[in-house]
Amino acid sequence: VQPEGTRDSEGSQFWNATEQCCNFDGSTVDDVAYLSGLIDEARSLYPVKSVALVGHSNGGFMAYRMACEVPEKLDRIASLAGTTFFDESKCVGTTPVSVLHMHGTADDTIAYASLPGHAGAEESASRWATKAGCAEPPVITGTRDYLSSVDGEETTVSQWSGCAAGIDIQLWSIFDGDHYMIGNSDAYKDDVAAWTTGSG
After folding, report:
1. Which residues have C-beta within 8 Å of that of residue 183, sequence separation ≥ 6?
2. Lesser CB count within 10 Å: N end or C end of the chain?
3. How far apart are CA 160 and CA 139, in angstroms?
4. pLDDT tens per residue across span 47-101
5. % of the chain surpassing 90 pLDDT
């Protein structure tokens, strides 16, 4: 299922996700209800074993919002360059879900690091590790090569251990990756697909 967001006053599609991104017109559209309805419809029509939400940028923010507000609707989220709520109290759900956070360290659109008013990549993943009772800190389990523009294996895979049964929390830190570049790699797409199905 590949849902489309609402169009804003400039004609750009968006999700009404977190306070940071990207409902700039103050729309009252309820995308949590919309996506929840799509999940319910899919479950009613097909033998769905698990639900994973995958999003880039604003889509990643929306995946985090869904995990925060309706964790019972899904099993996994994978967010590329989109972070969770800055205000942690807005992430009201207590049920842990598996989280894959992927982020370029040179992203100048959505910063990798935590900043005032912004929960960064490591903070976003770590919060979900806490919800799942994982052990801190995460362990580096490998490196990968997704970017032809960077010599060698630029992506570091960090994984938390000791999490609640069935929960997998990972952070893929893409050295010198920007906001868009990694999505063009076939190897990256294959690895994300494997993670969302629980086979990688």
Report:
1. 56, 80, 189
2. N
3. 6
4. 999 999 999 999 999 999 999 999 999 999 999 999 999 999 999 988 999 999 9
5. 92
Sign of CA dihedral 119, 125, 126, 128: positive
Which amino acid makes up residue 99? V
SS3 35: helix
Residue type, 47: P
pTM: 0.95
Percent helix, percent strand, percent coil in the chain, to nearest 5? 30, 25, 50
Asked if residue 64 lies in contact with residue 56, where contact means CB atoms within 8 angstroms, the answer is no
Give dist(CA 33, CA 187) in Å, integer.
33
Helices (H), 16-57: 31-45
> What contacts 24+ positions apart, CB below 8 Å, involve 184-190?
185/146, 185/147, 187/144, 187/145, 187/146, 188/144, 188/146
Structural contact between residues 3 and 38, judged by C-beta atoms closer than 8 angstroms: yes
Find how far residue 10's CA is from the centre of its chain.
26
Q: What percent of the chain has pLDDT over 70?
A: 99
What is the mean predicted confidence (pLDDT) over 104-115?
96
pLDDT surpassing 80 at residue 158 = yes
